[in-house]
Amino acid sequence: MKALLIKDMYTIVKMLKLYLGLIIILAAIPGFSSTGFAVIYAGLLPISVLSYDERLKWDKLAAMMPFSDRDIVVSKYVLGYILLAASAAVSYIGSLAAAAFMRETVSAELFSQLIQICAIGIILMSVNMPLMFKMGVEKARLLFIISVGFVIAAVSFSQRVYESAEVSNVEIGSISLPLFFAAVAVSLVSMVISVSIYKRKEH
Amino acid sequence: MDILISNAAGQPIYEQICSQIKDEIISGRVSEGELLPSIRNLAKDLRISVITTKRAYDELERAGYIYTVAGKGSFVAATNTEMLREEHLKQIEELMQKILELAPSCGLSDDDIIEMLKLLQKEGR
Amino acid sequence: MNAIEIKDLSKSYGDFALKNINLTLPSGCIMGLVGENGAGKSTTIKLIMNAVRRDAGSISVLGMDNESAEFCELKNDIGVVLDEAYLPEALNARNINHFMKAAYKRWDEQQFFEYIKRFMLPEKKPVRDYSRGMKMKLAIASALSHQPKLLILDEATSGLDPIVRDEILDILNEFTRDESHSILMSSHIISDLEKCCDYIAFIHRGELIFCEEKDRLLEEYGTIRVSKERFAEIPGDAVLGKKVTPYGVEALVDKSRLSEAFVVEHTALEDIILFLAKGENK
């Protein structure tokens, strides 16, 4: 598992430099939408790595190495979690730094916002991963774009609902943890599905 | 010890190894009790098959030229002249057998063969 | 012990089937796998590694059923080089070392870098900028550096120049100086296999034609060149393949079934295989 993460990290740093830079910049800019983009992009990086693996037919060599099918699949999810957490952390630090610079205090709902964004990132990743393992990144691309569009629409819609309904910050904050745990549950189910899909494949 | 393998000779490789080690022993270039290279090392050094080398060693052991101590390796056995004589007699017999096989195809009678042998002997001197 | 033991192995895809393969690679030996493109060599290798699941039969590798749960762990003892390197190409040799060190229990860093030097591979250049030959050399270095007991090479040396191929054959030869080490290798270059193998297995259209000791093959089979009249005298079961021209017959024969009156020429492994492969077409 560790080996697979090392390989994927190298791949991201070396092949997806631009992506990574964009994510860091977006994350560092304070604000809900830039943070949202950064974290969601980060959560989707494993799919880019998967696409790269697929082009190189990496699965053929992986099948010869002492990796179980479960390790190969789960490592992509773990990579996603790490990247989500890292980009959320960068965002948090960015906001703290900006607030300090402006001599303000950080808004109270920042933390719960971040957790909500992470939850959305995890859900997006979890919905897409089994499709990617089943159909291959190339073929699943359209579904992927649709799902991203759908999530962005849903988020902006719910934002508008919040604003028009003048829901208090406390109420928004109260849904963040349940949402997060729901996302984790979805990703666990997704992992089980992905592993069983990968196990049935021949390399 | 020199062992030279020829792929073009047509003689099976295990026979080449066998006869060359035999020659080394008969000529006294390797002496009684001397440790021979292990089957695996000889095979790898000569870049030939391990199985073939094993076959050669088995053959030598069966013929009494070498003996194997489990875990230690193969050693040159005590050679006695009687055995050598027998070996050579066997070879002569084999060659003669061959002559007898080939003779009819040239229409040679037994007397012709003996005549030929005498002629060769004279030339040899 | 046997390094690989395959019994009654079958696997079928839509238009291709591997039928009833029986193969045994004794520990300490090198086996060459020969066959035309699409004969089933790569499929056999994938089946051995359980990357492809068999329909029937049994496969045991280093004494373990390859469908058992512990087989994944056993892959630490098996070094595989496929027809392409399939290495993560964004990485350079140093990164590969870092990755492999985490992947294999007994990764020997020092040995890996020795091979890198020996093969004159750049350490800092990403693998995607390597030539095919360099990629294959890196894959071979990786397979050798985790201290495997069994090496499986699928067309690993094709595309390399003769000097490098010979160097690799030397390494493989040395590898089996340890009698617990074994190698299964497929190659199109039969002369390479003739140089280093103890056994030759010939797969043709999904079927195993033979799995024989190499030197026995070379001893038992030979070529004769005779007139058609003379050819008619030869018992049918002595002939394994023939080529008839207006001027005579060239045939691969089993020496033991032929009278000594015929002049039988030593035949290279490649010609034996060609005769047998075409003999099937009769």
Describe the structure.
The complex is a heterotrimer of chains A (203), B (125) and C (282). Chain A has one domain (2-200). Helix content of chain A is 87%, strand content 0%. Chain A has helices spanning 2-15, 17-28, 32-56, 58-62, 69-101, 110-135, 137-165, 169-200. Chain A is globular. Helix content of chain B is 61%, strand content 6%. Chain C is an alpha/beta fold and 282 residues long. Chain C has helices at 41-48, 71-74, 93-103, 109-118, 132-145, 162-175, 190-196, 214-220, 228-232, 269-279, and strands at residues 2-12, 17-26, 30-34, 56-61, 64-65, 78-81, 150-154, 182-186, 199-204, 207-213, 221-226, 239-245, 248-254, 265-266. In chain C, a hairpin with a 2-residue loop joins strand 4 (56-61) and strand 5. The A-C interface holds A 2-4, 6-7, 10-11, 14-15, 52-53, 56-58, 60-61, 63-68, 202-203 and C 46, 49, 51-53, 72-76, 78, 80, 82, 84-91, 95, 98-105, 126, 152.
Indicate how many domains the architecture of chain A comprises. Answer: 1
Oligomer description: heterotrimer
Order of helices and strands of chain A: HHHHHHHH
Structural class of chain B: mainly alpha
- H and E string of chain B: HHHEEHH
How would a textbook summarize the main sheet of chain B? 2 strands, antiparallel
Name the poorly predicted regions of chain B.
none
| Count of strand segments of chain A | 0
Give average pLDDT of chain A, whole number. Answer: 87
Question: What's the SSE blueprint?
Answer:
The complex is a heterotrimer of chains A (203), B (125) and C (282).
Chain A (H helix, E strand, L loop, with lengths): L1 H14 L1 H12 L3 H25 L1 H5 L6 H33 L8 H26 L1 H29 L3 H32 L3
Chain B lengths: L12 H14 L12 H8 L3 H13 L3 E4 L3 E4 L4 H26 L3 H15 L1
Antiparallel strand pairs in B: 1-2
Chain C lengths: L1 E11 L4 E10 L3 E5 L6 H8 L7 E6 L2 E2 L5 H4 L3 E4 L11 H11 L5 H10 L13 H14 L4 E5 L7 H14 L6 E5 L3 H7 L2 E6 L2 E7 H7 E6 L1 H5 L6 E7 L2 E7 L10 E2 L2 H11 L3
How is this structure best summarized?
Chain A has 203 residues and is mostly helical. Chain A has eight helices and no strands.
